[in-house]
Design a protein that fits this description.
This protein has 457 residues and is an all-alpha fold. It has 16 helices and no strands.
Amino acid sequence: MAHVSSAASTVRLTQGDPKRVITAFAMPIFLGQLFQQLYNTADAWIVGRYLGKEALAAVTSSGSLIFLLTSFFIGASMGAGVVISRYFGAGDDDKVSRAVHTTVALALLSSLVLTAFGVGLAPVLLRWMKTDPEVLPQSCAYFQFYFAGSLAMVMYNAFKGIMTAVGDSKRPLYYLILSSVLNVALDWLFVGVLGKDVSWAAIATTISQAVSAVLCLMQLCKKDRIYRLRLKKLRMSRDMLGEILKYGLPTGAQNSVIGFANVLVQSNINSFGADAMAACGTYSKIEGFAFLPITSFSMALTTYIGQNLGAGEHKRAKQGARFGILTSVTLAELIGVCIFILAPYLIGFFEDDPEVVRIGVKQCHIEALFYLLLSFSHCIAGICRGAGKAVVPMVIMLSVWCVLRIIYITLAMALCHDIRLLFWAYPITWFISSVIYLIYYLKSDWIHGFDPKEATT
């Protein structure tokens, strides 16, 4: 076993009270996601207020298509985080280093592919989604400029994933706060002051993400880091690439197919016109706040489970899993209740058009009270990934959140072209996946997915 050097920037989740450790680790992620959501919200608010509802629809409705194209690479980086956290928990510095350099090399290649694909296919994909002709030119401009900055986005996510995997969730938070403030300031300057179009909102996002990526890179290159990044060692190690893809491909495939289902939902929303596009896009920004505890605790659980199983701490892994699930579900539901009550004011904050508000409130009232189901599913999926069983959430999400959701939407829209039926697609599939996950969590032997001895041979 290689000697693990000490560094204040890394946190071992295999020691201390599980509740305190998970909470302390999840809070920086929570705050980071909060600031990211705030600048996404500010982005939409500035565009809506200064450029009108067509521009707002262009920016917010692009979210599902952006997720479709980026989700595979984000899923692959999750696989890298699982591998790094396990070898870090097992105390193997050499394999941590090789996993880090393979991750960065893979991210560089992925960013080039994503740029070419996103910029080149934007017009085709947006027309396929039945984007309203009044919105299409602005949507296309925003989309192409957003993906022109794929290098900054992909590298930041890769660097952040590496730092999080070794227990450093604080520095990515600081960098994200800085980039969030910068993004809002640039949005205000470009759109509010200079009167630029929606493409400049995408440029502001790219600049802010590039700043975060550079700051993370500087941290990764420091000499006293276990996970130090060296350009001369930047290559894809075949065995590490195999492990990363083993855990990352199922998550990437799962995210991509779910993204495809969401694009199908968005294309149906687009068929209801610009008002529905603006309303549903605005709701997605508001819903993002419910994802704060969901994302932070599911990510924390993946790292926590990975490190503890890597160290052979099975009982401790179970204790932390129970606490993380309960906390995330409770917080997500509290946010859902607040959104349900405040829906008219929240939608009206972005766009005060009566029809936009009416549709947005309708979606809030149908979906918001079911966030506990969404949280539960994501937490169990995070636990499965940390336990090395990424295929399980892939199968469940693909069958329920993709296949079943598409079947439901196709039948529902054929029977009655009512937008409320589209909104119900989410709570229904959240409920079904939660039932399946509950059965799996209680009945399966998910705890024995990793042998720490294998990590040190």
